[in-house]
Amino acid sequence: MSPSPDSSSHDETRLTLLDAAEEVFAERGYTAATTREICQRAGMKNMGAINYYFGGKERLYVEAVKHAMRTCAHGTPFPEWPPGTPAETKLREFVRTMMARMLEVPKVASMALMSREMTRPTPSPVTEEVVRQNIKPMADVLVGILNELLPEAPLERRVLVGFSVIGQCLYYRQNRAVSETLFGRELLDRFTADMVADHIADLTLRGLGKSVESAAEAQEVSPDTRSRR
Q: In terms of domains, do 16 and 100 share one?
């Protein structure tokens, strides 16, 4: 018998399934995960619940990854920069937003599922939708900044710089366990999002031959850029 919930319980049940799917997909991957295990993890006896609420396993996976990405980005949108904001300042604020997302993820399963999808992507249609709706908007912001920052550079160089920026940000989340083993949790807990963001931005700007000081001065002149985050 198919479930027939009211609107409130429908949303609650759907969220329960998404949370369970997020955990199971993160642990086992798309292929090895089963709808039966997801239903059991969600505490649901009706094995047809996934088909009812999502239309099948593939659609559930897409929604679970999107759910994970929303969780990781919650409360930390990218700034809306006013006209005339220097590209150096935009880069610094972009990195600051990324680090807030990396260091303040409220659920381990959310980051684990995102990491799995990025390193071991699922079948093409699933990956394409997730990238198009969730990763591309972020990439477009960074590409726009690098186009301003390096207008004369060839595309290959701008892409390499973009990869380097994202790679530095991701390190602090994906390699946390190894870093704690090497240097201890107490030290790493002192690395705030602002501290790491300034380090990455300074290192990147200096490597590109840009003035770190002018970017810092621009931030002081336009403090409202942070309030827009």
A: no
